[in-house]
Specification:
alpha+beta, four-stranded mixed sheet, 3 helices, 24% strand, globular, 4 strands, disordered C terminus, Ribosomal Protein S5, domain 2
Length: 106
């Protein structure tokens, strides 16, 4: 990735992250999701997107404030249960140092 971005990948997802310049009007991390037709039909793709959004909603307060995240689902993601999606994304975010420590979050 170019200037200041990072890329984490697993069998199921690719997580792209860019830390933006901190501006007062845009507080908190932002999420973009890409799920191609290779993952499955519309029902399957929407289920994967819902599960990614749910992980983001639950973990948003623990993520780096200035982070812009893009999650790209790979075809095997179609077979993951909700908890497995959350676990995979959490591992990618942790390895990419996106998760703030409790001290930083306070």
């Amino acid at each position: 990735m170019g200037s200041g971005g990072s890329r984490q990948a697993s069998r199921y997802f690719i997580l792209l992250v860019v830390l933006r310049a901190d501006t007062a009007e845009e507080a908190g991390p932002r999420l973009g999701i890409t799920v191609s037709r290779k993952v499955g039909n519309a029902v399957v793709r929407n289920r994967v997107k819902r599960r990614i959004r749910e992980w983001f909603r639950r973990e948003r307060s623990a993520l780096e404030e200035r982070a812009d995240l893009v999650v790209i689902a790979r075809p095997p993601a179609a077979g993951l249960a909700g908890r497995a999606v959350a676990q995979e994304l959490q591992e990618l975010a942790t390895s990419g140092r996106l998760v703030r420590t409790r001290k930083e979050a306070s």
